[in-house]
Design goal:
The protein has two domains: 113 residues, no CATH class; 58 residues. The radius of gyration is 33 Å and the shape is rod-shaped. The protein is built from four helices and nine strands. It is α+β, with helices and mostly antiparallel strands and 184 residues long.
């Protein structure tokens, strides 16, 4: 089992409604150099076993940062991906926009969950100007706090050194007064 996301034209992916035609999906996939239409996909496991999956309209996305091919499975008039991460969701949202469709989870939630849509430029980088500004501010605050802690540590060490020196001085003075008063 796993959690599926669906590129669909249906109001709810599990109900009846307009389908994406297989031919339309194949044309769209063939126009994207990062997608490769194939009829089957195999995965090798560490125990030596191999799993092969076959499906008409199956496409492999070779643009994922993991460099592993990600299966986009055409079935029932929609494209399904199992257990997608954020990068895969972004690719699915882009494809859905081009297919006049939406991306829906198994529970019926629609993606993107944020109000703004994902653009092709965003799929390359998740850093928006706002996120960069927040990162810079947080980095600045971190440097200030580290500097302040280092400064306070230096002040503490200086005070401690002065205190020890004063204590030694007073002890020597007290001992000298004791010796002078004792007549030794």
């Amino acid at each position: 089992m796993g959690y599926d996301l669906h590129i669909t034209r249906k109001g709810n992916w599990s109900e009846n409604g307009p389908d994406i035609a297989l031919e339309e999906w194949v044309r769209r996939a063939e126009s994207d150099p990062s997608l490769q239409i194939t009829d089957s996909f195999s995965a090798d496991f560490s125990d030596g076993s191999r799993l092969t999956y076959s499906s008409e309209g199956l496409a492999l996305w070779n643009g994922h940062s993991s460099e592993n091919p990600i299966p986009f499975d055409f079935r029932g008039g929609q494209i399904v991906v199992k257990n997608p991460d954020e990068e895969i969701v972004q690719k699915m949202v882009l494809l859905a926009g081009e297919l006049d469709a939406t991306v829906q989870g198994d529970e019926g939630e629609k993606y993107p969950l944020e109000k703004e849509a994902v653009s092709p430029a965003d799929s390359k980088s998740s850093r928006s100007p706002g996120r960069v500004a927040v990162s810079v501010i947080l980095l600045f605050l971190f440097v200030v706090v580290v500097g302040l802690v280092a400064w306070l540590r230096g002040v503490w060490q200086a005070l401690l050194t002065v205190g020890v020196a004063a204590g030694v001085f007073l002890m020597q003075r007290k001992n000298k007064n004791f010796i002078d008063n004792s007549g030794l």
